[in-house]
Specification:
- The longest helix has 20 residues, at 41-60.
- A six-stranded mixed β-sheet has the order 7-6-3-4-5-11, covered by helices on one side.
- By secondary structure, it is α+β, with helices and mostly antiparallel strands.
- The chain has two domains: 8-231, Hsp33 domain, CATH 3.55.30.10; 237-288, Alpha-Beta Complex (CBS domain Like).
- It has ten helices and 13 strands.
- It binds zinc ion (ZN).
- Pfam families: HSP33 (PF01430).
Length: 291
């Protein structure tokens, strides 16, 4: 399976219950993201969990727009973010203090020291919505479960794994009580208990049908269509120019004097953008001529 692209997410539900699930498994889309920088393996793994998580969220929170998860803190990891748009384009990045040793097993709570997780929903047309979760757990799964209980008030469980080649996730959620059917409580307990037995190599190595069969061979499961995901960056010349303009006239002028133009490399995809004085003429104003 290592050589075949498998970047898929699939929804499923258990017959006669109100429990639904999602399973994601990504390889080349994930590899595209981590190869942009020289990440130490523990960070590749952590970033992979974030990528799997955004893919799951993308399918749960259905909006026409961009969804992102961003972790920020004061530890050796300053930022970790992943994003997915409505066309299943994924991108992500981590920034860390390269002078410090990266622990083999990363605890989110430790590496982000007093940090938080922001989940942002940015519809194409409409109000941006942001949910903030204080990071009190060691894992992203714990933080996400906390987010779901806060924002959707639905019992939800998340399992995530990544190994530098593949990343994957499994999600279970019990839908609102008024719709629930008899025996639901037991079913939820049973399904989450069985999912808790999932091993990393199963989450990363088995195709969805096989994984679900291994966990739930006694249950009736309905599988929905798979969706393909891919690496994709939403940067553009205009968006980059907006970011450059936010530096302010004075700083833009200084860079132009020193370097002749303002060069920006997209950190997500390495695309190079360059802006000359002529490009920025309108924002710099007349008195700002540097040459
Ligand atoms: Zn880009």
């Amino acid at each position: 399976m290592n050589n075949v692209s498998i970047n898929e997410i699939q929804r499923f539900s258990f017959d006669d219950t109100n429990v639904r699930g999602e399973r994601v498994l990504l390889n080349s889309a994930y590899q595209e993201i981590i190869k942009r920088k020289e990440y130490p393996l523990p960070l590749e793994k952590l970033l992979g969990e974030f990528v799997a998580a955004i893919a799951l969220l993308r399918d749960i929170i259905k909006i026409d727009g961009v969804l992102s998860i961003q972790a920020k803190g004061n530890g050796f990891l300053s930022t970790l973010m992943t994003e997915c748009d409505e066309h299943q384009n994924l991108r992500g990045i981590a920034q860390w203090d390269e002078n410090q040793n990266v622990p083999d097993v990363i605890s989110l709570k430790d590496v982000l020291a007093g940090g938080y997780l922001a989940i942002t929903i940015q519809p194409r047309n409409g109000q941006r919505y942001q949910g903030i979760v204080e990071i009190i757990g060691d894992t992203l799964s714990e933080c996400l479960e906390q987010y779901f209980s806060q924002s959707e008030q639905l019992p939800s469980r998340v399992w995530l794994a990544a190994n530098g080649a593949q990343c994957g996730g499994l999600f279970l959620q019990r839908l609102p009580h008024e719709q629930s059917k008899e025996g639901d409580e037991d079913a939820w307990e049973r399904f989450t208990h069985l999912a808790s037995t999932v091993k990393e190599e199963e989450l990363l190595g088995l195709e969805t049908e096989e994984l679900l069969h291994r966990l739930y061979h006694e249950e009736e499961i309905r599988l929905y269509d798979t969706k393909t995901m891919q690496f994709g960056c939403s940067c553009s010349r205009q968006r980059t120019m907006d970011a450059v303009m936010s530096l302010g006239q004075e700083e833009m002028r200084e860079i132009l004097i020193e370097q002749g133009s303002i060069k920006v490399d997209c950190q997500f995809c390495a695309e190079k953008y360059e802006f000359t004085e002529a490009d920025l003429e309108d924002v710099l104003g007349d008195q700002a001529k540097v040459h």
